[in-house]
Amino acid sequence: MKIKALVILLVFCMTFVFCAKKENTSLIEKSLFGKLNDGREVYKYILTNKNGCKVSIINFGAAVTSIVVPDKNGKFEDVVLGYDSLDGYVNDRAYFGVIVGRYGNRIGKGRFKLDGKDYQLTINDGKNHLHGGIKGFNKALWNAEILDSLKEASVAFTYSSPDGEEGYPGNVNIKVVYTLTNDNALRIDYYATTDRPTIINPTNHCYFNLTGSFENTILDHKLTIEADSFTVVDRELITTGKIATVDKTPLDFRTPTSIGERINDKHEQIVFGRGYDHNWVLRNYNKQVRKVAELYDPSSGRVMSVLTDQPGLQFYSGNFLDGTIRGKGGVYYKHRTGLCLETQCYPDSPNKSHFPSVVLRPGEEYRQTTIYQFSIK
């Protein structure tokens, strides 16, 4: 009887392990997405949670290529702009879904001083440096590792940025972990180290459209930002150093406001940005994750809450989309058919001593967490 009981127990344990492994492997699917010109292979990872939501990511640019979530009627649709093929991402200049860095956003004239030494970065946005340069994190082939978890689907992407890349000092090792949680959130955790003092401010550059159709604009989306002020920009969209109140301006999103309501206002900041392309100074910054924004599409009922431990949020309203970029399903992305909510430190922080520091030194670890939480209203 003891032997029989042991056999039954053994069979049960083996069955449990098999089922657990089967459940685990069903959470993440890996497939070949394409090959670069030098023959290196690019893979796509599809993360699925218990509710049927899916997030697809490729290891070129660590780009989020799709986020599929339900609307108020239970219909699952993709809510981020992107491309169907690798060529689109290789030739992309709009930063669809990618990790940008080393420094997300703009650095005036591409110059900064650190520990008394002057550095010149690549110029790729007029007279300025934008999103890490010509070949930043968004054009890198990252290493990918599926993380072993029976509860949630996670993939870690790592990249070693060499000293001098795009003008940045220090060898930097960065890791970005994407997790699709079972409460329908995409969590992004960042980690980085360096062997020389440097600056770092990575972010994700997804373009969201909660309607589920990329033919629609985002002008009817209602946006709330937990911020009482913003960083003022000049005509080149470089921060002047001034922090101004949003009160009585078209940049006031302290209560839910339709994006299209004031996007063509004659306010100087809106004219400079050709719409919204500004950094909001978020409330309650204490390096802890908290809710900082909410995006709501009345037509689909989809809601996206943004949570982060960062001090700033760049809201970009797709002002430079002009119908020339062919995206998913052959759709040409028209003006303002997608928007970005980029969690970050302030733009041009290395040149503004009163802005939060973006300096990373040897022996320190850069960390950041941002969560895009999807729900229905």
What is the count of structural domains? Answer: 1
What is the CATH third-level topology name? Beta-galactosidase, Chain A, domain 5
What is the CATH architecture assignment? Distorted Sandwich
Strand content: 35-45%
Query: What is the strand tally?
Result: 27
Main sheet attributes: strand count, strand direction, barrel closure: 9 strands, antiparallel
Q: Please give the CATH class.
A: Mainly Beta
What topology, given as strand order, has the largest sheet?
A: 11-12-13-14-27-23-22-17-20
Number of distinct helices: 3
Give a structural overview:
The chain has 377 residues and is mainly β. Helix content is 10%, strand content 39%. The strands form seven sheets. A nine-stranded antiparallel β-sheet has the order 11-12-13-14-27-23-22-17-20, with no helix packed on it. The chain has a five-stranded antiparallel β-sheet with strand order 1-2-3-4-5. A five-stranded antiparallel β-sheet has the order 19-18-21-24-25. Strand 1 (28-35) and strand 2 form a beta hairpin. The N and C termini lie far apart (58 Å).
